[in-house]
Design brief:
heterodimer, A: alpha/beta, FAD/NAD(P)-binding domain, 6-stranded mixed beta sheet, 24 strands, B: 8 strands, 7% helix, FAD/NAD(P)-binding oxidoreductase (chain A), FAD/NAD-bd_sf (chain A)
Chain lengths: 455, 100
């Protein structure tokens, strides 16, 4: 490559982290390529409805409307001015030696990079509950996306289960929009939530806002519940069976269930480009390793919830930092990072409080009955995972080959954490020792026709 | 034809109507609906599970879980949570008869 050509920087993801990274690169005079799965930039939490929808930013994003609006306007301005290249509705499905295979509406194209910034975000961290394969069971994120991007509730009568900030937020948002929320069932007991409060004081205003939202749920909210099973018949969900903190069995009729235990970092691309991972005890999941700026090595940088689960505010900061690291490594004058690093440290303390207050339900997963489905893609059961976990010597990828858990179309995104938990129990080791499922290209299903060329 | 479905429209109801075919029957949706919204506005499922008896109706709505792939009469499948419905689209809850 000629030395006069500017470096080609590709950003994957146009949520808060990707947009801030792109803007920082544009400020330095570069023209990044931004590849995003959405039709319109914004990411998931600041997701925009399709053209023709009329609700205001305040209606869509509540207290975060100004932040969402600023990010959308910034990205649109840069895209319209030709300061960046936006590949919308496009998925990076593979990466090899600096070349990304990008699946879009017109097939697969190859986009090469000198530096890569991954801002791939997160999805709901879900734990299997018997019956969760039934129609009408969705992730909490899905319930929120349906409301924001489509103006709909995914059921007539809704029960939300799980734990974490999204549980309360989605419940309050659905109620405000006029949906019938029958119950909000939190697996985290009060004493556990209080334990997280000390660190949550790192962002007192955000913590207070969370408590105010919780108050809106009123008597629908129950802490410290035990989730027994999702009842279903022909058409789908009919009820949630659970035990309250006092041990009394309850049945709540509903036709939709939203579930989630905070977030799971989306790391398949980080895996493909060779990032190192460690099992993070605080978040009970595998996370990629970088320095504090987001440098992963080999010209790759990570930012946002795909690296550390700090939420949208943290993602904006991390996006700026990753871009600053990238610029510094290329020999460009980089913006100062010290203020952002201090802000990020405060958000990390707060996130630590959330992780403590709303933990992953280890005991619930380990006690799953053998006939409960763990992998929704192919209905692989807990019994099959346990049996093959033993045959596979307690190793994640051998268990995957033997039982097919994690080999379905979602590639383990929604079953891996539970499967690894089951294997760890079966073989008497830790989830960290069981290991993680290897990421495999294509990381999204791709039709074979997308790879074919005319002539 | 209005048939009660899984979803409840809470806002943005003043959009133009579009028509599509589901298993050969005409159905109404609103411009800007995803295929998932359109199908579940008058139905309860998107497809049948290949591995169990239960119908499926999507799960993550953000393109990650792959639960919402639906068939079209002409062959290619659509990811119902991200594709927008369009006038005259021909969707089906079962694979075409010609599929092996």
């Amino acid at each position: 490559m000629s030395e006069t050509l500017p470096p080609r920087i590709v950003i994957v993801g146009a949520g808060p982290a990707g947009i801030r990274a792109a803007a920082a690169l544009v400020d330095a005079g570069l023209k990044p390529v931004v590849i995003d799965e959405g039709q319109r930039a914004g990411g998931q939490i600041y997701r925009r409805p399709p053209a023709g929808f009329t609700r205001t930013a305040e209606q869509l994003y509540g207290s975060e409307a100004a932040k969402a609006g600023a990010l959308h306007a910034l990205f649109d301005r840069l895209a319209e001015a030709g300061r960046l290249t936006h590949c919308a509705a496009s998925s990076v499905i593979a990466s090899h030696e600096g070349r990304l295979h990008v699946l879009g509406e017109s097939g697969v194209q190859v986009i090469s990079y000198d530096r890569l910034i991954l801002a791939t975000g997160a999805s709901d961290r879900v734990a299997p509950v018997p019956g969760w394969q039934s129609a009408g069971v969705y992730s909490l994120g899905a319930a929120q996306i349906a409301l924001k991007a489509q103006g709909v509730a995914l059921g007539q009568r809704i029960v939300l289960i799980g734990s974490g900030p999204l549980l309360t937020l989605v419940g309050a948002q659905l109620l405000k929009a006029g949906a019938d929320v029958a119950a909000v069932l939190d697996t985290s007991p009060w004493h556990q939530q209080v334990r997280g409060l000390r660190k949550l004081a790192a962002r007192p205003f955000v913590a207070m806002r969370g408590l105010a939202l919780r108050a809106r749920l009123g008597g629908r909210y129950h802490a410290g519940v035990t989730l027994m099973r999702i009842e279903a018949e022909g058409k789908g969900v009919t009820a949630m069976r659970w035990r309250d903190a006092g041990g009394h069995e309850r049945l709540t009729e509903c036709d939709m269930i939203g579930m989630g235990w905070h977030l799971r970092a989306e790391t398949h691309l980080a895996d493909l480009v060779g990032c190192a991972f460690t099992f993070d005890e605080q978040w009970r999941q595998w996370l990629p390793q970088t320095d504090q700026m987001g440098r992963a090595g080999n010209g790759v940088y990570l930012a946002g919830d795909g690296l550390r689960l700090l939420g949208a505010d943290g993602a904006e900061i991390a996006g700026r930092l990753a871009a600053a690291a990238c610029l510094a490594d290329l020999g460009f004058p980089a913006p100062r990072a010290s203020v952002d690093l201090r802000k990020l440290a405060r958000l990390e303390r707060f996130a630590g409080g959330l992780a403590c207050a709303f933990p992953w339900p280890t005991a619930m997963v380990r006690a799953l009955p053998d006939d409960a489905v763990v992998c929704r893609c192919e209905n692989v059961t807990a019994g099959a995972v346990r049996e093959n976990g033993g045959f596979g010597g307690g190793e994640a990828n051998r268990t995957k080959s033997l039982s097919r858990v994690g080999m379905g179309r979602c590639q383990g995104r929604y079953c891996q954490l539970a499967a690894v938990e089951l294997v760890a129990t079966q073989t008497g080791c830790t989830p960290g020792a069981v290991g993680r499922f290897r990421g495999q290209a294509p990381v999204r299903p791709a039709p074979i026709g997308a790879f074919l060329r005319e002539g | 034809m209005i048939i009660a479905g899984r979803i409840v429209r809470l806002a943005e109801r003043d959009r133009a109507e579009v028509h599509f075919f589901l298993d050969g029957q005409t159905r109404a949706a609103l411009a800007g609906d995803t295929v998932l919204t359109a199908m579940l506005a008058s139905g309860h499922a998107l497809r049948k599970s290949e591995f169990g008896p239960e119908p499926r109706a999507g799960f993550c709505l953000m393109g990650a879980c792959q639960d919402c792939w639906v068939w079209q009469d002409e062959g290619p499948r659509l990811q119902a949570c991200s594709a927008l419905v369009s006038e005259g689209m021909r969707l089906r809850t079962m694979s075409p008869e010609s599929w092996p």
